[in-house]
Design brief:
By secondary structure, the chain is an alpha+beta fold. The protein has five helices and six strands, in the order αββαββαββαα. The model has no long low-confidence stretch (mean pLDDT about 90).
Length: about 180
């Protein structure tokens, strides 16, 4: 039973790390990355569809994204969705493909982005701690109901803390890597 609680807690912590990585991937770093467009939703024939499902996205140059829609009639819809997004990029199209030029980040924008990354990292830390809290509560209930001995409770509590420390270190590592990527000129 204790192993199930720890395994479930570890699984939730892994999901927290994955969510953080997905979240940070969408933050612009001055380098062209198709991941910037993963969250863009396009109104296509009355249905909100992910841009990645409507087109192939590539980065032919370090500061340019090239979007090739599968259906050429979707070019205007994709362009409109990019303009309405919070990316702050202006697309240019030639009727068949859309080009997005990624301008270099200013120093002020870099600082803003590192603050956003710090905020997201803190949210992930809180998420990992919440997983620990939930698991600890479950372990306490098991001990109180005499489902596990007191010694097993304390061993499990120590294991849970070690697991939490490992995942918080992983969150820090992911956040630090993204901050370095943003500050890289």
């Amino acid at each position: 039973m204790v192993k199930n609680v720890l395994a479930e807690s570890e699984n939730k912590m892994k999901k927290t790390i994955d969510a953080l990585q997905m979240d940070l991937r969408a933050i612009r770093t001055g380098r062209a990355s198709p991941a910037l467009l993963e969250r863009i939703r396009v109104e296509y024939y009355g249905t909100s569809t992910g841009l990645i499902e409507l087109a192939s996205v590539s980065a032919p140059e370090p500061h340019q994204l090239l979007i090739r829609p599968w259906d050429v009639s979707a070019v205007k819809d994709i362009e409109r969705a990019i303009l309405q997004s919070d990316l702050g990029l202006t697309p240019s199209n030639d009727g068949k493909v859309i080009r997005l030029m990624i301008p270099p980040l200013t120093e002020d924008r870099r600082k803003e982005l590192t603050k956003i990354v710090s905020k997201r990292v803190e949210e992930a830390r809180v998420g990992v701690r919440n997983c620990r809290r939930d698991a600890l509560s479950e372990l306490k209930d098991m001990e109180k109901d005499k489902a596990i001995p007191e010694d097993d409770f304390y061993v499990a509590k120590d294991d849970l803390q070690k697991l939490t420390d490992d995942y918080i270190a992983e969150v820090e590592k992911v956040g630090k890597a993204k901050e370095e990527e943003i500050l890289e000129i």
